[in-house]
Structure formats: C-alpha cells, structure tokens
C-alpha cells in the first residue's frame, strides 16, 4: 500500500512539473501573439484556442500536485479543536466519503466527454482555427484521474495516521517496509 501511495504521489509531482513547464510555454505563446499583434499587425488565428487550452491544462494538471504537497487552501479551525486523532479522521471522511465519490463520477464523465469528442472529431468553434477538442479533453480527463488517485492516496495516508503509522518508512526500515 505504501508503494502505491508513493507511486501516485510521484505521478502527481510529475504532472505538477509538466504544469509548471506549460506555464513557461504559455508565457512564450502570449509574448509571441502580443508581438505579432501589436508590432506587426498580424495576429495569429490559433492563439485564442491554444492559450485557453494551455491554461486549462496548467490548472487541471496541477491539482493533484497541490494536494500531494499539501499546498491547497484549508480552514483548519475544527481540526485544531479535535486533538491528535481529529485531523486524520477529518481527512479520511473528507477524502474517502465526500471527495473521492465525486471525483470518480467526474473522471468517468470526463472520459465519456473525451471519447465522444474523439469519435465525432468535434471542433472548438471558438476561433477561425477551429481545432479538434479531443486532445484537450484527454488532458482534462487525465488531470482529473490523477486528482482522483491522489485523493485516494490521501485517504490511505489518513488511515495510516489513525493507526499511528506513516506512509513513509522509517530510515532504518526502508528496505522492505511494504
């Protein structure tokens, strides 16, 4: 179980790095478009769609990373009042009983959304370029699936915490902790 949690967290961190790289790509694309538009009066036909899709990819690919690194916004008023076992119990209930079922449903719906666009070769209709949308919808699905897996990993970590154990093995026991 520990190995699975670490694998999921590794995937979440990898997707976070991809999202960070996409921010740089987005900045270059925007600079290119602004330069062409205002310096040469020659805007591109693809800029609107590409930048919108890239920003959406940045957002959805960074969610699992944010959860894995505990960098999301929390209101911990209740947790501070519940003692040592309260925070992992709230995490377990929140992740396993509230968030995880919703994310499983959302992942399934996004899979169908992607697959329908792939089969129909649906196009964006938002610009003169009018690209197919299935690649972007695939990213939406993959990012949400990673978020779903990371949420499951967080629930497992909460179970370990309630049992007084850590997902990370002790340094001396790192050989065969699973």
Commentary on this structure:
The protein has 178 residues and is mainly α. The protein has one domain (2-172). 72% of the residues lie in helices and 0% in strands. The chain has five helices and no strands. It has helices spanning 2-39, 47-68, 77-81, 86-120, 134-162. Helix 4 (86-120) packs antiparallel against helix 5. The N and C termini lie close together (7 Å). The relative contact order is 0.16. The model has no long low-confidence stretch (mean pLDDT 91).
Low-confidence stretches: none
Instruction: Determine the fraction of residues in helical runs and give it as a percent range.
Output: over 70%
The percentage of residues in β strands lies in under 5%
Radius of gyration: 20 Å
> How is the quaternary structure best described?
single chain
Total count of strands: 0
Order of helices and strands: HHHHH
Count of DSSP helices?
Answer: 5
> In one word, what is the shape?
elongated
Q: Biggest sheet: strands, sense, closure?
A: none
The N- to C-terminal Cα distance equals 7 Å
Structural class designation: mainly alpha
Number of domains: 1
Instruction: Compute the average pLDDT.
Output: 91
């Amino acid at each position: 179980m520990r190995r699975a949690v670490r694998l999921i967290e590794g995937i979440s961190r990898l997707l976070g790095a991809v999202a960070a790289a996409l921010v740089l790509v987005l900045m270059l694309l925007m600079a290119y478009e602004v330069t062409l538009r205002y310096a040469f009066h020659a805007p591109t036909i693809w800029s609107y769609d590409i930048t919108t899709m890239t920003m959406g990819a940045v957002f959805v690919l960074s969610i699992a990373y944010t959860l894995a690194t505990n960098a999301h916004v929390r209101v911990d008023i209740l947790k501070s009042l519940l003692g040592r076992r309260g925070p992992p119990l709230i995490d377990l209930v929140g992740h396993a009983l509230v968030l995880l079922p919703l994310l499983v449903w959302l992942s399934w719906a996004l899979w169908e959304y992607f697959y329908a666009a792939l089969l129909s070769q649906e196009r964006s209709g938002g610009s003169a370029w009018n690209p197919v949308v299935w690649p972007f919808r695939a990213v939406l699905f993959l990012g949400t699936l990673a978020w779903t897996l990371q949420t499951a990993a967080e629930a497992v970590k909460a179970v370990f915490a309630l049992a007084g154990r850590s997902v990370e093995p002790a340094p001396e026991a790192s050989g065969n902790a699973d």
